[in-house]
Amino acid sequence: MTRINLLPPERVKERRGVPSQRNYLWLSIVLPLVVLLIMGFWWFSLGSQINNKNEALQKADQDLKDVQAQVQSLQKYATRAQEIATTQDTVLAALGGRVYWARILNNIAIFCPTNIWLVALNGTSAAGTSGSVTFDGYALQCPNRDLAGFFPGELDYHPDYRPIAGWLERMAQIEQFSRVWLASAEPSFMINDENIEEPEPFPPTTFTAGGQWVMHFNSSAQLNMASAAIGTKATAAPASPTPQPSEGEGEAE
């Protein structure tokens, strides 16, 4: 079949030489819209991030102000602590090396067994270089040590030295003591001073009855100046005691 073109030759040449613009017209319309949409989304996202950062910054600033207010309120305690530290240094400079008797007496009261009571306690120290404590006291005895029906002085009593050993062991646990000695320990009968009147035989007589056996002891302790002096600390705990009573005399370290 023969194709017949009714256009003039000039028109045909013109159409062949100049490309058509209608194929790209939709791009010139759609592309700017797409770019605007992308820029709008990016702007919205960036604005949201900026708002979040601003809120976080405001919160951090508020937290900082709160912390600064708390620090300011605690500043008086820091000043007071500094004053106490200065006073403590002054006291330690004036009393350094002296024996801290209050702490020692407190530890003796804490470690003293319940079956021991003291009637005398003496402490001495020499210019903060050495010191000792002496004890005079009594130890309770188990009731079954005293056989009923006998009088004091007869062979009815069996001394129990275990409370004395317990006393030495407890005192050796005090870090302010380096050594603990037992000077003496002997049975003693304590009368309750109960007066009883016996009507027979005539005339009536009054005598004292009642009492209990106890252990009277004397001991001493050598101070550990590494922990007994003011402003010093103990470097090691004392060793457990090993009481060695021998005819009323012994030592515990």
Brief sketch in words of this structure:
This protein has helices at residues 9-17, 25-95, 101-111, 162-172, 225-228; strands at residues 116-126, 130-140, 177-198, 205-223, 250-252.
Can you describe what's shown?
By secondary structure, this protein is of the alpha+beta class. The chain folds into 2 domains: 23-95; 101-252, no CATH class. 42% of the residues lie in helices and 26% in strands. The chain contains 5 helices and 5 strands, in the order H-H-H-E-E-H-E-E-H-E. It has a 5-stranded antiparallel β-sheet with strand order 1-2-4-3-5, covered by helices on one side.
Count of extended strands: 5
Distance between the amino and carboxyl termini: 135 Å
Overall pLDDT level = 77
Q: Oligomeric state of the chains?
A: single chain
Characterize the main sheet. 5 strands, antiparallel
Percentage of residues in helical conformation = 40-55%
Major sheet: order of its strands? Answer: 1-2-4-3-5
Instruction: Return the structural class.
Output: alpha+beta
What's the number of helices? 5
Shape: rod-shaped
* SSE succession: HHHEEHEEHE
- Please report which band the strand proportion falls in: under 5%, 5-15%, 15-25%, 25-35%, 35-45% or over 45%: 25-35%
Q: Which stretches are poorly predicted, pLDDT < 50 over at least 5 residues? A: 234-253
How many domain modules? 2
Return Rg in Å: 50 Å
